[in-house]
């Protein structure tokens, strides 16, 4: 019977398949306080992933942008406020379709 080799996380790969990681190092150069409105002022679109922001904040911010795309990483947010999200979606479509 032939012995099958299992793939492992640290198994050595040929040079042609090795890739270097790009590592970014950042340094904080300053600090400034701003409101949510000031932070997003001047942008016309927003794409975000949220695990914790409630729909109240997102709906408030949505009015500031021409285009908005939000990915919810937690079902807890949607189950709690799904009706509000659905309603806001219909309202936004009605506003932009006129």
What does this 3D model show about the protein?
This protein has 3 helices and 2 strands. The chain has 98 residues and is of the alpha+beta class. The mean pLDDT is 76.
Layout of helices and strands:
Elements: H1 36-40, E1 45-50, H2 55-62, E2 67-72, H3 75-97
Parallel strand pairs: 1-2
CA radius of gyration = 22 Å
Q: What general outline do the C-alpha atoms trace?
A: extended
How large is the share of residues in beta strands?
5-15%
- List the helices and strands in order: HEHEH
Note the total helix count.
3
Q: Percent range for helical residues?
A: 25-40%
Question: Cα distance, first to last residue?
Answer: 71 Å
Low-confidence stretches: none
Mean pLDDT score = 76
Count of DSSP strands: 2
- Report the structural category: alpha+beta
Largest beta sheet: what is the strand line-up? 1-2
Major pleated sheet: 2 strands, parallel
Keywords:
extended; alpha+beta; 98 residues; two-stranded parallel ribbon; 12% strand
Q: What is the compact description of this entry?
A:
This protein has three helices and two strands, in the order αβαβα. It has 98 residues and is α+β, with helices and mostly antiparallel strands. It is extended and about 55 Å long.
């Amino acid at each position: 019977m032939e012995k099958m080799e299992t793939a492992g996380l640290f198994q050595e790969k040929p040079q042609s398949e090795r890739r270097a990681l790009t590592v970014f190092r950042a340094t904080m150069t300053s600090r400034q306080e701003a409101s949510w409105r000031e932070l997003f002022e001047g942008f016309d679109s927003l794409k975000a992933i949220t695990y914790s922001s409630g729909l109240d904040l997102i709906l408030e911010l949505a009015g500031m942008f021409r285009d908005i795309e939000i990915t919810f990483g937690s079902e807890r947010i949607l189950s709690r406020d799904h009706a509000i999200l659905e309603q806001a979606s219909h309202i936004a479509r009605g506003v932009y379709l006129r």
